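[job 4471] stage=fold_predict status=RUNNING
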Amino acid sequence: MRIRLKYLSEDVDRHGNVRCYVRMAGRPKVRLRKMPGTPEFMEEYRAAVVAAETAPRQARVMARGSFGYLCRLYYGSATFKALDKSTQDWRRRALDEVCTAHADKPVALMRARHVRKLRDEKADAPSVANTRLKALRALFRWAIEADEIDSNPARDVHLIRYATQGYHSWTLDEVAAFEAKHPIGSKARLALAILLYTACRREDAARLGPQHIRGNRLRYTQAKNEHRSPVAMDIPVHPDLRIAIDATPRDHLTFLATEYGKPFTPAGFGNWFRDRCNEAGLPHCTAHGLRKATAARLAERGATAHEIMAITGHKTLEEVERYTRAARQSRLADSAMAKL
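[job 4471] inference complete, writing structure tokens
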């Protein structure tokens, strides 16, 4: 009686010889060369099964026209490669998550209702749902331009609207509490001064160094969109920032470095600074909250939207006007109450 082995497969070569293999889904096939039916063959088969089970899984080959195939084309495109690394990362994460369940689905059959369903799978976390939708929009925009699809199924799908306060904007008391915990000369105090007196993002704070200061001015190119639409910054060095820089010892090209003497990654710096906030009893405060606080404080002191943009590097008035509107409302309320 012939015993069928689970992972054994056979084919015949062009000379009529039967070849035996161990085939396991998602693993490379293993050729068996011993004579079938012999103890040596069984020993070789068992060893091949173990080797196949421990081998790394092979990437699934996506059929042309499938969602997974379109994603692979997008990742290899000049458009995707021109994106900042952080943008590449969040788009790839969002699209790969969709691929786990829908990689084999034909893109030509996708409609707005399918995209809406993909968005709503994350409806309990609206920001995550919107991130997924933004990644899908970018994918399909590129696919239209690359002639891979004829219509954009995400075009009429809207972001989920939800109320959020965003990052907490630091108060003067919170800045004072941080400074009381981290004195002049500490790396934490220098990090606070850089964020507070430049309104830069955490990825910029991690890259700034003495080479960016010329005379009494700080000149650098923002990391965000630096490869697509760079924003060159040129702002005066605030006296308090100068004091913090001069008082803090350094041996590196960047003002801030890890305990191992390496530059911070943006995420690593954000996590490190949050720990310093926790030490000061400010668990709700973040690095980005200082950027928001500086913009709001400039607005409260009467700076125009364009003046604030010269410090923050925003490219449109829309974001900055939120700060000026809030400051204007506060001043108008004071004026109105005085007349009551």
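[job 4471] summary: The radius of gyration is 29 Å.
[job 4471] exit 0
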